[in-house]
Amino acid sequence: MLTLLGLHGSSGHPAAIRSFIDGLAPDLPSLCPQGTFADGEGFTFFRRRADFSISEAELLSLAGEAASPSGFVPASAPMLAIGYSSGAIFATALLAVAPQRLAGAILLRPQPISQDFSFPDLSGKPVLIISGLQDARRQPQHAPELEAQLRKGGAEVSHHTLEAGHGLEEDDARVAAAWMAARFGAGLQPDRT
Fold first, then answer.
1. I need a surface site. Which of 42, 46, 90, 193 has the fewest CB within 10 A?
2. How far apart are CA 64 and CA 11, in angstroms?
3. CA-closest candidate to residue 172, choices 16, 35, 27
4. Is 156 helix (H, G, I), strand (E, B) or coil?
5. Which residues sit opposite 5 in a β-bridge?
6. Which residues contact 52 (CB under 8 A, 6 or more apart)?
């Protein structure tokens, strides 16, 4: 059975992403770890530089640790990563370093790891990107750039743009639930037809 891996955003807590994923599929098992680093009044999975840029090497190293035998991404069940904001960036890094651990991903308000990032073979891996037209924390090209990078790696990408800012809205849940039902079918087992 599919297990949902919820990854919260910067200065966040597991409870925030848990309430979102429980609304999508309350009967599925889920895992919502807490970010490793203190950040504001919450936590984050990786640190940004002073100019808010991302260290690609550090991010991928942290994702590798999360997917290691001692990390929080178990190898025992197919995981659907659902990441919001910096959690979406971390889910993207997991796709890059441990694609075999993920059945797919839902990336809410993501951005690319870097402009010229290349993914390994993601052939047939389903990925949903949901971006917001009024998102002041993302640049307009971020989601399309990430979509192109994922497609180049062979992922099957659906990209929905909402009339929304950076925060999650009801439409995010509606789009994500419909995509999950279409991609994973009855019982949320992968649909091979």
1. 193
2. 22
3. 16
4. strand
5. 31, 81
6. none
Residues facing residue 129 across a β-bridge: 107, 159
CATH number of the domain within which 37 lies = 3.40.50.1820
Domain holding 27, by residue range, is 3-188
- Which contacts of 163-171 are long-range, i.e. CB under 8 A and separated by 24 or more positions? 163/132, 163/133, 163/134, 164/132, 164/133, 164/134, 164/135, 165/132, 165/134, 165/135, 165/136, 166/85, 166/109, 166/132, 166/135, 166/136, 166/137, 166/138, 168/20, 168/84, 168/108
Backbone angles phi, psi at 28, to 5 degrees: -85, 145
